[in-house]
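Design review, sub-item: ligand-bound model
Attendees: FS, YL, KQ
YL presented the inputs for the FE2/S2 (inorganic) cluster complex:
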Amino acid sequence: MTSLFTKVSPEPTTDAGVRRITVSINGNQHTVDVEPRLLLAHLIRQGLDLTGTHTGCDTTHCGACTVLFDGTPVKSCTMFAVQAEGHEITTVEGLATASELHPIQESFKDEHGLQCGFCTPGMMLTAKALLDENPDPTEDEVRWALSGNLCRCTGYQNIVKSVLAAAARLRSQGATDEEEGETS
Amino acid sequence: MTIDEIKIGGLGASRSRVEDNRFVRGKGNYIDDISLPGMLHMEILRSPLAHARIKSIDASAAWAIPGVRLVLTGELMASRNLAWMPTLSYDTQAVLATDKVRFQGQEVACVVADDPYIAKDACEAIIVDYEPLAAIVNPTQAMADGAPIIRDDKENQHDNVIFDWEIGDKDGTDRAFADADVVSELELHYPRSHPSPIETCGSIADFDRSTSKLTLYMTSQAPHIIRAAVAMVAELPEHMIRVVSPDLGGGFGNKVPIYPGYVVSILASILLERPVKWIEDKTGNLISTGFGRDIYLRGQLALRKDGKILGVRMHADSDHGAFFSDAQPSKFKIGLLHSAFACYDIPAAHLTARGVYTNKAPGGVAYRCSFRVTEAMFFQERMVQAAADDLGIDQAEIRRLNFVRDDDFPHRTPFGFLTDSGQYRKCLDIGLEAIGYEDFLKEKQEAKKNGRLLGIGISTMTEPLGAGNSREYDILGIKMFDSAELRVHMTGKAILRTGAKSQGQGHETTWAQIVAHELGIPAEDIVVEEGDTDTAPFGMGTYASRSTPVAGAAVSMVSRKIRAKARKIAAHLLEVSEEDIDWELGRFFVRSSPDTGVTIQECAMAAYSNVPDGMEPGLENNAYYDPPNLTWPFGCYITTVEVDPETGVWDVLKVVAVDDCGVRINPMIVEGQIMGGLAEAYAISSMQMITFDEQGNCVGSNYMDYLLPTAWETPGFELHEVVTPCPHHPIGAKGVGECATVGGPAAFVNAVLDALKDTGVRNIDMPLLPDRVYEALTEHHDVSGAPPLRTGS
Ligand code: FES
Ligand code: FES
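KQ shared the predicted structure:
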């Protein structure tokens, strides 16, 4: 759309004002020319059309822009796109497969863990990072893990419930997978 | 044979939300997600000063930056007669400042460029020469002799007063006070707060010269009002304006008004003949767009010794900022502040109110609120609490004694509202039982022996939701009805459109449930659309918890019109007369032979293929609903807290909410609304505050300074329900979205003050930050929160 980012084939660039970077987003490699000051959130949203990553405050406070950066939740509004060079990024679009929602997404739906949906992608990704590390968190651990993500609609109670429900789902899924592994 | 209503997602089903399918995938379509070919980007340069004369603006350096397409200043706007615009309260507001800036953050210039980064750079390159003027940051300063006149642009404005207004029975109230055993008094400040949805405001104006049509994508809770207003402001014909409000990332009243950014983006698109996108940043949102509250109260209760309230006197000074742009019914200058004390049986009341200009952002929006009812109920419940303490009466007992009784409805409130239903005592009893009232009082006494400070706070209220009936409620003269249009297709599937606009309330889910209830068409067979003025019927939008009371009622009514036509078709298909058939959910049948019948889907097919002679084909209709009255939900909120005497920090121990919002369409969604409301009540009472220093600098311009609670601070909530159907709503529903935000804050404040009772402190103004509580605890005096902030030591 603009000079801020251009999708290119992976050839060396001659323009001194831009940097060529290759980023992996949801498992797909993207090579783009970017201005060094371009924020990662903007590359993801406008450059790569993955608009599920929202920006609410652009000052690292709200967490709407949270993505997973090599598995760790980061606020993409406070990171330059060039810093993502060579790293793996997961956005909300990377959670579901075409036919199936991720258990975290299912749980947010079932437990009414969202209203306007603006904070939701960030909440779910933060939750994913938590559950990857800690499959059986307490309510307090969930609340603490989510404390970098603001929600103005839900009062958090159902978000916390969603994450706990997702944890249970993932654990039972894991158990079934194991059982299946044993029987096969 | 009979359809199970819950199974088809009808009334009372906790149906999972339709909109979530896209939201959880990150496929919502919010304003900033929309990208149009050739789109340019706009940024706003804002005033760093609260009050200053503009001596000159030099934009030459901005124009010189490559990629800059347009720089707009007040002068350019004035040349198009667009430097000022009307507000929703019959005042004017500067679009881009020409003469003076009147609050910090006011819009001074705009840049349109190829990308937002260039536009931001160019804003910084604009040089504005200001001559600073003294700033006014509260009503006392505004009304002081010799105060600088903020609105010197208005010919007949010789002071800073916007209005003086009164309502009620002055003489009767004076008599009540003369007869009183005790008069209890309280002075309170309800601080300025910002609704602060996570998504800020924004617009994309797309003017197409070849068709002369303007498409305006924007964050609006009321797109039809915007269309009308744009037609007036920009002098474009209304049929050539299409306003589209896409998914909204929250609203809470913040997205009702018309902001300068929208207007400038329209002009920019007309001038450049390209789509122009403006996305506000968070600071812009917090310092310049519709705040809520900011009102000072002097309240008095005339009391009999036993606690019976004989009369109420209230005076309010409200701080509207630099432009009077409250979005509220035009008849009531201070909103519905006079809804205070509606749940109590009080013979006489009198309210006076004065609104003033200050050098602060305009707004006065109904932040999760029906036009100042939040202030009304807070003042009410703080005054009742103080009265109980003054008389040494139990705080539950004083409420019980004064409540309107279940068999006293309809009841005329002392300010003239008509409440129509409720079971107030029952709600209170359920709440007291749930919190363990008696046990807690004992625990509190025990704890005191160990130096621990426990407190319990109650807040009970009924509030008027669902403006309104058109006799009394209008905005800019437009009556506050609402609308629905239903088209049932040949195969019995349907599309429903309304004049409301969801911002997270789940209309796509719940409106379909009402249709399912009325027609027996499964909710999943009904798609709901809102927010596009080219397709949706005219409506007043979603705010003030009015969607279910008004638009929701329209959905019922249009469904009933459809059913009436389907009935005629059914009679034709069954070859009997209309009088001989009966309706059960989803099906007409012959009364004398119940097995002979036709389904609503069969009627739909016949509407397009086999209508009786003389009948118009098709099964479509619309309804405009003008409610006979407001709806009156009741809420009882009780909290317990522990205050740390060493630090003034207070922890919430338990929160109980008992809500009676009549019939619940989708209980899951209703509970979600209540929990969201409770979290905001906690936020407002404990930390949220937009305040100002002596120079009028806004303290609270980002989420570092404007504190919002996270999942960590926010307490858990225990919800209970009572159902008293609304007697005049077609399905007995009442509004609910804001109840907990309206009633909740007093419960938290009353609890903290209860914990501090032995100190003799009668009031601490919100937010109850630890330093304020600590000051009250250690110095044994009331703590006022009125700006300016004390600076220095
Ligand atoms: S947008 Fe990144 S934290 Fe708010
Ligand atoms: S669902 Fe609206 S901000 Fe969280």
